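Reviewer 2 asked us to include a model.

Predict the structure of this chain.
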Amino acid sequence: MNDETKSQPVSGLTVITVLYRSSEILAETLPTWVHSANNLPVKFIFADNRPGDGCEKFIESCLDADRYVYIPDSSNPGFATSCNMAVAAASTSHVLFLNPDVWLNEDSLVRIHAAIIDAPDVPIAVGLFMHGRQFVGIDLSPIGLFVDQPVEATRGPLGPSGGAAVFPTGLFRQFGGFYDHLFAWGEDADLAYRLYASGIRTRTLALALPHKVGHSVDSETGLLDFRAFLLGRNRILVAARTLSWPLLLVSATFIAAAHFLLAIRRARQGLLRPFLRGVGRGLLEGPMARREWRGKRFGILSLIDYLRVRRPL
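Predicted model (structure tokens):
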């Protein structure tokens, strides 16, 4: 870490949320955030990629004007870019990425703030409850490259999940934030690999926050196709950007096997064509993606270290 990110004083927390077709779910979750924030030094930034659906008015009814920033962008630049734009506008020492379909308990932000005070210089993976299980952070998978890490895992996470992640603001900026070109899905894993390769470890806070997955894409065929495309492409781009050449060569067989199995699943879902387009695009764009990251990459030694690190960190 450089001087910007070492031992910086804690000056508050900004909750960053990217909205897209989120009015109905935000009406349920935002009141829990406001209640949890209470008198803490917490601010909010909302990046709305589909403005006009009522989110802005509802936010205005819940929060004082000096406590939030609302950034509408009907061009929909994607989750990664919107997060980066919001961090650029943040004035606090730490940011919390929080999906709009996550509920907070009364003491959630109190506990998150206490965790920041305890470890101000490192990322924090905040636990989520989804699919009937508890998860906290991102785990390395030999097949899928990255998956949600079950809370019962004995080793520490690779990094925080973008659904509920705390970062020192300076650290996030130092590493260039999320990779814009990924648009959505995998941008948190890309950053996690880069941070881990640079020696930065993630702490965990297993809060088990209720998380309703997929509210923005469910039941809309075009978005389901787009997600299948991105999931096919982005795993390849994350591997190309973040893995060292030796590890990338070793992992190629596993990555190919993963995409074969995913292709079978997508075929059953009627999403094979967009998925295969994504795989093809990933192979074409991989060299460019690799050139765009010039920092340390996750290699054999990083992998050995990751496999032996145990909780608590």
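DSSP finds ten helices and nine strands in the chain. Strands lie at 13-19, 42-48, 68-72, 94-98, 124-130, 133-141, 145-150, 164-168, 203-210. We have added this to the supplementary material.
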